[in-house]
Amino acid sequence: MPELSIVHAEESQAPIISSVDSTQHLEIETAALKEGLELLRSLEREPTGLPPYMTTNVERCKESINKIFKTTFNLIQARRAGTITTDEHSRTKILLLKDAGQTLKRYLIVYHHERLNRIRKITRNTCGILGQSLKANMSKNEQTFAEKYYRLYIDFENDVTSNNGLKLLTNNSPPKLEYYYYRCKEDYGEYELADGNIIIIKRGLIHHMPKENAETLLRSGIVEQVHM
């Protein structure tokens, strides 16, 4: 019976992790962080287009995140079981590994989020027509996303703009100036707008023009704003 108790005690112990193993893990994750950083640098080098999808770097980052989780879990279990020292040195290793894992996750999230934003913009600008060179730079999941996104975008546009003729694919920028309708209250003659165009101010006429062009006329009482 005593021997059986010893066997059970040994089986319940947390895995023994040496300081050498932990140091090696830290070195490995440092290399993974460099590969994760390269994901973001690839977007910086091509700020407007869509650079090739870096499958190898993405997969290595994902593998490193899994390794970090397992290593951190084993270190915590070993500290609790007393198989490694519970000093500040082992605590620092755990915190460094945890920070490395979180940083890799942020790299992956930012990388994919930025790529999807660019794919949305490109899809709208090309009316859903993606060339072979562009598809070659996209992952399979990104190609599927682009197709589904464009279908949803078109369905939304047709639903919203069926009666007013507005096209979201072409009219996707807000107006730079506020336009209003103004009725002329008296005869004034020619009036030059800010863009150099000339309009005729004649009693009863209604003009549609930017607010900044009508301010002087409004203050003088020559025109009045009306709602059409």
Automatic annotation (TrEMBL):
Which Pfam families does the UniProt record give?
Sld5 (PF05916)
Question: Where would I find the GINS subunit domain in this sequence?
Answer: 96-159
Tree of life domain: Eukaryota
Where is this gene product found?
Answer: Nucleus
Q: Which UniProt keywords apply?
A: DNA replication, Nucleus
List cellular component terms (GO): GINS complex
**Location (main, coarse):** nucleus
Q: Which InterPro entries match?
A: GINS_A, GINS_bundle-like_dom_sf, GINS_Psf1
One biological process term from GO is: DNA strand elongation involved in mitotic DNA replication
Stated role:
Required for correct functioning of the GINS complex, a complex that plays an essential role in the initiation of DNA replication, and progression of DNA replication forks. GINS complex seems to bind preferentially to single-stranded DNA.
Q: How does it assemble?
A: Component of the GINS complex.
The record's family statement is: Belongs to the GINS1/PSF1 family.
Q: Which PANTHER family match?
A: DNA REPLICATION COMPLEX GINS PROTEIN PSF1, PARTNER OF SLD5
Q: What is this protein's name?
A: DNA replication complex GINS protein PSF1
Q: Give the source species.
A: Strongyloides papillosus (Intestinal threadworm)
Taxonomic lineage: Eukaryota, Metazoa, Ecdysozoa, Nematoda, Chromadorea
